[in-house]
Amino acid sequence: MRCVHKILAIIMSSEGTEPEAQEQNYQKYKSLKKYQEAVDCLSAAADECQQTSNVNLENLISNCDNCVGLVQQLADKEDDRLRKFALQQLLTSVGHSLGSLKAKKDQLNKGHEPYVKDATSISTDNAADKHKTQRKLIVEDTIIRKGSISFQDVAGLTEAKEILREAIIMPIQYPHLFTGGLKPWKRILLYGPPGTGKSRLAQAVSKEINSTFYCVSSADLISSWVGESEKIIKELFHHATQQEGRSVIFIDELDSICRSRSSSEEEHTRRVKTELLRQMEGADNMASVEKIFLLCATNRPWELDSAFLRRFQKRIYIHLPDREARKAILHLNTASSSAVFSAEDLDSFADNTEGFSGSDLSNLILSALYEPVREVQKATHWKETTDGKFTPCDESEPDSIKQSMRDIQPELVQPRQITIQDFLKALCTSQGTISQAELHKFTEFTQKFGHCG
Length: 453
What we know:
By secondary structure, this protein is α/β, with parallel strands linked by helices. The strands form two sheets. The protein has a seven-stranded mixed β-sheet, with helices on both faces. It has three domains: 2-112, Four Helix Bundle (Hemerythrin (Met), subunit A) (Up-down Bundle); 140-319 and 446-452, P-loop containing nucleotide triphosphate hydrolases (Rossmann fold); 323-433, Orthogonal Bundle (Helicase, Ruva Protein, domain 3), CATH 1.10.8.60. It has helices at 2-13, 19-24, 26-49, 57-77, 81-110, 124-141, 158-173, 198-208, 218-221, 228-241, 267-280, 306-311, 323-334, 343-352, 358-369, 371-378, 420-427, 436-449; strands at residues 143-144, 187-191, 213-216, 247-251, 292-298, 314-317, 381-384, 390-392, 401-402, 451-452.
């Protein structure tokens, strides 16, 4: 598009396009008017191309089409060789773009690429294959391999883990148990405040099973091209049904694409929701729906459309960690630091962190773990340990050595062991991020629709 603007700028700045010439020669005035109309069409098309979403393909094609017609008329009547060459170059450039846009439109409307004759003679078969390959690559990029997180690495949430074992793990490991009227759950929604472990639970599921696990976000499903998002969703579920055994699709931040429908929302948004609902119910292949388990997570369940809520057989509230879970989180996050805490220390930590989410606690613990490192940087006196390393000490201690950290070889610097006091100190600058008003909304939703995990 930039090269097109440059070509038009050259043409309009050439001799014979000044206002005086318009008055002297009506034909030149008409030509100048067509030049301006072509610029306006091209500018409108360029503005549309800058859109990151909701691109109006019809408007884009219309502007390019009008520009081609105007430029063709100008080229036919132009006698100046330089201008005629520039107009022909412009015609080739816009014609190429127009052909691509029409091919894209036909692909979205009919599912295949028509033959479009333009300067580059676009190959329709190759274009169709390219788009199909791109959708397949998008889906395959969401597949994650077994991670290192297991259910044992997720503190608390005992009931949620049990439900996920019943819904996903047991049907895969013991399929003979689920016969007759007993069928495994197909769709489960995890909801709760941010940082409570919803995504971590999903990662743990991927380690526990030997089937294909898709981890999807709204960014993976939404395309700026109208109609392409629905095809990506369809490709995701189709790809999952082609795998051996039962596949698991995890969609995080579901509220970003499944908010309540309204009369004011855009048509393409409504089509995306409709396609996802169709795939959840196995509209294309009822037999294939048995091969897919859908696990979704959201921080704002009350914003979900009621049609989506109804389709989840279990809606599990992933609440803030309770007292015992907070102690377990402390153990998990300090396991590699060789820190030892007494029962009183753990009670003190649990008492002072009520209302913290799992993410809040992780940040608090990380801040506390930094305390010995901060002391190392400021230390002025050191003592040598039995293994030949140096650790900070008080200047009153026997055999203390006055020096800074820079005077010691880096590999010999040894910070002190972390204590519960470091956590209490970190609490002075750390607060929970979940308000009581938010918790009240989750409680109300759970009473109406949910199941406490």
